[in-house]
Specification:
Elements: H1 12-35
Amino acid sequence: MKRSKINIKYETIDYIIESLGIIALVCLVIAPIYFYNSLPDNIPSFFHSPSNNSLNC
């Protein structure tokens, strides 16, 4: 038994949304590569100042 295939025509808004999605994915890949050289050598991971004793960690 063959399944019926529905052909849905894209409208202009569909092409716009698809294009924006592809552009967003490309930006998510390119942005870290572009800004990689501007990262510091050591990235701080603990910001609690020693003078603040209200949080006894």
